């Protein structure tokens, strides 16, 4: 067993804690000793570490990045569609026809708040434990706050106005989302800043895959970028985002860089290489695999040993938008492949493959899966090229096109074999459009699409095959949540 797998094993083993860390009724006075609850579990530093792992485990659930968060961020974008497969919610996302009763919203809301609640529980009991060193306590709190910040940032990127739930009010059964925006944003930014100040620049040995200061600084950058864009429109955050991104680029301790070959980014061998910042860590055979390759694989196409579902496929227009000379093309899309049965048949798009499919999360070295939901290829939540493109976006929005503004995007384009952009020939608007397009080519299938279009007020402009409206710039509060919580208010766009 490699040391690198230890963190993944810990996440997998956290399944038994699922029901324990969500929340608890602190007003109960009876002491129960034959059932694990937060009230009787947190006794040692090892218990606290188990609590942190339970937060990572929540992130992996299908309610979160294991499926729904990923799909909700992808389907409304320009690059993918669900091919009329699975739950109706997927087509509603793709076609901008969702309603407050659409099924996926309630699972995402519940899943992300499960992360928040587990993190709050860890923080609530942190002061009552004896630690081997003060640094160990700091590390536990820093990882926990990073994960809480990530959950909350994702909530506001989808829903805009969400309840503020912390250790102080964790027992409030009916939290409100009225007038909580500033509190939530302060929490997000403070959580990432604290994690940045405590976590190491890299994790080593059995801790590889845990959050780092680089991941915290990247998410802080993303928080500033989000705050600057629609619907918040706080322009003073553009230069803050540019500054943080530049610090990441210039911090040698992180060891970040671009792989020479785009396809190397997604191999299992390089899952913690120089482009890695933070991912959903996956592994076959230990109940920590996922079905991402199955989602994108070709149904009945003799492409994968365990077959695919063709449930997240590429838009033909998006496929056609990528220059055939772009070096990312053959890894991004299925251009051709050999029949898995070894009979010599070669399938090619558009000849014998009828729809363009994604290839990014399908790897020949991911061959140990025992079922369609047991693949080991990690899902990047953020990686170094994301930082480079965020830097270009923030520089352009704060100061306009300049040599500094095109620095990051040109590094990404150079690897792809594309002509560099010349700042002097561009306006702020044309560079903005170029960055949106470059993010789509570079980061498609990685859960950025909806957030990018929303932040740049580009949904109505760029989604032309359907009819999005102003309400499309936010998800509604799930109807199920409104039905049980009298203090929740529906998003203004849906009233």
From TrEMBL:
The record, for Pfam families, names:
SusD-like_3, SusD_RagB
Residues of the SusD-like N-terminal domain: 27-225
Which family does the entry's similarity section mention?
A: Belongs to the SusD family.
**Protein's cellular compartments:** Cell outer membrane
The protein's predominant localisation is membrane
Keywords for this protein? Cell outer membrane, Membrane, Signal
Q: What is this protein called?
A: Starch-binding associating with outer membrane
Recorded GO CC terms = cell outer membrane
Which CDD domains does this chain map to? Answer: SusD (cd08977)
Location of the RagB/SusD domain: 350-456
Question: Which residues constitute the signal peptide according to the record?
Answer: 1-24
Q: Which InterPro entries match?
A: SusD-like_N, SusD_RagB_dom, TPR-like_helical_dom_sf
């Amino acid at each position: 067993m490699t040391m690198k797998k230890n963190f993944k094993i810990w996440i997998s083993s956290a399944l038994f804690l699922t029901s324990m860390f969500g929340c608890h009724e602190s007003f109960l006075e009876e002491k129960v000793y034959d059932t694990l609850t937060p009230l009787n579990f947190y006794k040692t530093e090892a218990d606290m570490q188990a609590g942190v792992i339970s937060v990572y485990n929540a992130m992996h659930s299908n309610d979160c990045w294991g499926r729904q968060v990923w799909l909700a961020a992808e389907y409304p974008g320009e690059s993918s569609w669900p091919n009329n497969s699975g739950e109706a919610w997927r087509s509603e996302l793709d076609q901008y026809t969702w309603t407050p009763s659409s099924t996926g919203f309630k699972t995402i809301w519940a899943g992300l708040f499960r992360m928040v609640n587990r993190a709050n529980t860890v923080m609530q009991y942190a002061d009552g434990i004896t630690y081997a060193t003060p640094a160990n306590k700091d590390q536990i709190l820093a990882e926990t706050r990073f994960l809480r910040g990530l959950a909350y940032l994702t909530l506001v990127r989808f829903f805009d106005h969400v309840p503020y739930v912390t250790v102080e009010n964790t027992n409030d059964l009916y939290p409100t989302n009225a007038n909580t925006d500033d509190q939530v944003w302060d929490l997000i930014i403070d959580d990432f800043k604290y994690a940045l100040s405590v976590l190491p620049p890299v994790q080593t040995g059995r801790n590889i895959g845990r959050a780092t200061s680089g991941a915290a600084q990247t998410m802080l950058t993303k928080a500033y970028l989000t705050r600057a864009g629609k619907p918040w429109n706080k322009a003073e955050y553009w230069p803050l985002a540019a500054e943080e991104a530049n610090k990441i680029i210039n911090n040698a301790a992180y060891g970040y860089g671009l792989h020479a070959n785009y396809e190397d980014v997604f191999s299992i061998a390089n899952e913690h290489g120089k482009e890695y910042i933070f991912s959903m860590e996956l592994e076959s055979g230990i109940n920590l695999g996922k079905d991402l390759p199955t989602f994108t694989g070709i149904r009945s196409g003799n492409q994968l040993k365990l077959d695919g579902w063709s449930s997240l496929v590429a838009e033909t227009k998006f496929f056609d938008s990528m220059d055939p000379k772009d070096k990312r093309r053959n890894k991004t899309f299925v251009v051709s492949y050999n029949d898995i049965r070894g009979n010599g048949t070669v399938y090619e798009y558009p000849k014998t493959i009828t729809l363009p499919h994604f290839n990014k999360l399908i790897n020949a070295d991911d061959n140990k899966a025992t079922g369609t939901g047991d693949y080991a290829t990690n899902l990047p939540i953020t990686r170094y090229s994301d930082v480079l493109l965020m830097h270009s976006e923030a520089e352009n929005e704060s100061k306009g096109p300049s040599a500094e503004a095109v620095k990051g995007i040109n590094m990404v384009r150079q690897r792809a074999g594309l002509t560099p952009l010349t700042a002097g020939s561009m306006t702020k608007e044309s560079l903005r459009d170029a960055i949106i397009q470059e993010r789509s080519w570079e980061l498609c299938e990685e859960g950025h699409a909806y957030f990018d279009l929303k932040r740049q007020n580009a949904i109505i402009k760029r989604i032309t095959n359907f009819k999005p409206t102003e309400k499309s710039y936010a998800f509604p509060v799930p109807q199920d949540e409104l039905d049980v919580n009298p203090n929740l208010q529906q998003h203004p766009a849906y009233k």
